[in-house]
Amino acid sequence: MSSQLNPYLSFAGDARQAMEFYERVFGGTLVMNTYGEFGAPDPATADKIMHAKLDTAAGYTIMGADNPPGEEFRPGNNLAVSLSGDDADELRGYWAKLSDGGTVSVPLEKQMWGDEFGTCQDRFGVTWMVNITQPQG
C-alpha cells in the first residue's frame, strides 16, 4: 500500500455525532470503535470514540476520536481541512452541509484569483476551506 495523508480530528466528547455528520455530508463507510471495546476500565469513557474512520466514494478519508481520557482538549486555529477541485455541484453541496449550523467566515463566492472560495467552521468547530477551480481559458 502506498502512503496516505489524512486529517485526524479530535473532539471533546462528541466524536460520534461529528463523524456521523461527516458521513451524511460525504457519504461512504464509517467504522467506529469505542474505548470500552478496547478494554478501557473507566465506565465514563467506555462509550466514547477511540478511533473512527470514514472512507468515501470520492476517495476522501477522514479519521477522528474523542480526546483521550486525562488529556486536555485544546482546539486551535492552526489547521483547516481543504476541499478543492472543479466539480462545482459536488463542492457546493459539501459547502452547504458543512456550513449549515456553523459559522461562515468567508462566503463561498468568486475571489480575486478567479476561483470560488469560502471558509467556514462547522457545528463541531472544525474549519473547512472549499475552493472550486474555474476553467482556464
From TrEMBL:
Alphabetized Gene3D superfamilies for the sequence: 2,3-Dihydroxybiphenyl 1,2-Dioxygenase, domain 1 (3.10.180.10)
InterPro entries named among the record's database cross-references? Glyas_Bleomycin-R_OHBP_Dase, PhnB-like
Tell me the superkingdom of the source: Bacteria
User: Any idea where the PhnB-like domain is?
Assistant: 5-130
Listed PANTHER family: PROTEIN YJDN, PROTEIN YJDN-RELATED
Q: What is this protein called?
A: VOC family protein
